[in-house]
Structures are given as C-alpha cells and as structure tokens.
Request: fold
Amino acid sequence: MSARVHGPLARLAWFLWYLAVLLVPLGLTWGVLGPPDAGAGNALVLSTGLVGFSALVIAVALPARLPLLIASFGIETVLAVHRLVALIAVVLVVAHLVGVLITDPRGLAILDLAHTTRAARAAVISTVALVLVVVLALRRPGRQPRYEGWRLVHNGLVAIVLVMAWLHVWWLRHLVSHVLLAAWFVASGLLIAGLAARRWIWLPIRARRFAYLVVSVRPVAGDGVTLVIQADGHPGMPFEPGQFVWLKIGSTPFVFEEHPFSIASTAEHPDRIEFTIKALGDFTELLGALRPGRRVFLDGPYGGFTTEGLEHAPGFVFIAAGVGITPLLSMLRTLADRADPRRFWLIVSARTERDLMLLPEVEQVRTRLKLKVIQVVSAPEPGWTGERGRISHTLLRRVLPRQSQRLHYFLCGPAPMVTAVSRDLTALGIPVRRIHTERFGAV
Reply:
C-alpha cells in the first residue's frame, strides 16, 4: 500500500463511488417511477428521504476499517468526512420527517406507534435513535465518558437507525415495487450487513492470527511507555513503516476495548513490534501494568502515511511533535535496516527538553544513517543550546537544505501543529503533493 498507489486517482475513485451510492437511488426512483404526482411537496419528501438513507449508508461505510480507503485519505480525514456525512444525513432525515408531517393527511397521528403503519413505526424508531446518536455525540466532549462505553452505546444506536430505516423503505413497498429499485435496496442492506460482519466477526478472527506476547513495558521520557511485543507462533504481521494498528488486550480478539497506536519499530522485523504511547487515559495507563507473557492481538495494519513507494525521492524531512515521533521512528529504523544511502532530516519539538521523546532511539538510528537532527524546545531550561520556540516559517527556512522543494516531508503530531507547519512549508514553495501528514487525536 504505497504512497504512489494511493494518490489523487485513488481518492477520486473513492469520491465517485460514494457519490454514486448517494445519488443512484434517487436517479433510479425518478427514472423508473417518474416524479410524484402530488407536486413539489411530495417530490421534496421523496428526495430528502432517499438521499438521507444513502447518506446513512455512507456514514457507516466510512469508518468500517477499509484499508485502501484509510491509505488513500488517512484516518483523520476519513473520520472527519464520516462526521460531516452523518450531519448531512441528520439534516436530510429531519427535513424528510417535517415534509411527511406537512404533506401526509394523517398529520401528527402518524407518530402514534400503537395505531400507525409498520413502515411509519420503523421510521419513528429510526429517527429517535438517530437523534440520540447526535445528542450523545455532542455531549461527549463536555462529559468525557469512558470511550468504550460511549462507543458501545453509539454503535448500538447506529445499528437501530440503519435497520429501522431500511425496513421503513422496504415496508413502504412503493419505492421497491420495481425490480431495479428492489435490487438496489437489497444490495444496500447486504452492504451494511457485510460491513458489520467484516468489522465485528472477520477482523477479530483475522486478529487471532496475529497474537503477540508482551516482552517488556518500560517508561520513557515525555511521560510515555514503550511496549515491546513478540509474535506468538507466527512470523509476524507484515506492515509498512508509518502504519498503525488497533491494539486489543484480553484473552480473545473479540474483546470490545481496543485503541489505535502507530508502530515505532522497523518493518524489516515484524515478528518484534514496538509502540511508544503517551500516558493519557485509562487504557494507556493499563498498558503500564502489563506483565511479560501477557497476550495481545493486533488488527491491522492501516494507513498510507509511509515512505513506501518513494524510493526515487532524493531524501525525506521528518517533522514531529511529542509522541508524533513514533511513526517517523519506524520509518527511520526501516531506512537504517535497509542501509539507505540518502540524506534525511528530523525536526522534533516539545515544550521542554525532558518532554522530547525517544532521543536515545533516535541517536541509535543517527549512527546508521545520514541523518541531521534538529531539536526545538518552546520553554527551554538554562543551559539549553538547541533551537528555541516553535517550528516556524523562519526556522524551517534556516534549517532546510537547498533544493528543499525536491524532498518529501512527513509531519506527525497534534492537529494545530501539523496544520501550521504544512502551511509554512507551502509558503516556502514545497509542493502539496510532497507533504504527508498524520494528526494524532483523530480517532
């Protein structure tokens, strides 16, 4: 899954596919059944309902852990679009409901679950579940619920929304009276069921093949821990440097609790994998209590944030803040193991010198590569001799080599840092296609 394979053409193909899912049922309905006889009101009700249902299907398909999709756009973009499409679906569903209440002669009586039709009953249940999904999502940042509990409720409500919405369309019969429309809605139902089966059945079964045993857990500078795991009876899970996996801790890969972490070790030895994880939240604190011999499972690998496919680039510039160093360290270690003769630059930033993560590991790699390391500290202590402040346009212009436009740039860290540095690089004349980013905190 190289960076070249998953470029602009791949992103365009995904966009066109999702656009077809969104609009084909509307086109089929108008082409097969013709426009509604009752005028613009019914046309609006029909259109908002059809496109709203299609948007729900897309919103569910986006975060279904499709490797090629994640490699094409990056997990942060996939999840951002997922939230946007879900919001659009909510607006369309509400517009559809309001239109039905206005145009249907039964009026509010259609909401009487005891005496209404089963199609209307399914619609009401789906809408109520959808409203609950939105309310819980909006309240989550302020209430800070335990992620696993919130995700369990969220996924359960989404399942109710989709099943009831599909049954609503099917039980109306009018929209599936033609064979083409019936085939489309059957296909959409099978797609949803297939994605669910893959996500909750097939992926855990596959993760069983990639069982690993904990070798060690050690604290590192910057309030983090490094977890080292060894393949349990298999040659290891192949991955590309820079990719990430979902880590599951438990006696079975069907355990619900899991979290994504970038791999920090070399891709040349997938039998022994390292993660360096910032100590934030319940799950990362649990990692510090793991003992050697404990079994863990990996779902992955995912992501297109990788140096693979760029063998002809003259060199790379790696820019990281905090724990964003982890996927970049995987790239550097892999390049070192391959004895890559090119020149590389690594710019790392943190608040204080003590917050700079994995410096001993970086130093080990530096002895095996033509690597220049620039450390940037925003709140330096007395005696600090490195760069001060933040990674800025001025600093980049000073430390980057000549012909910097020919290099490829890999940025990883908090979203504000990645956005700001990307903008500075563009201002320095670096082509956008040579800037590769990954933002932490998106999942």
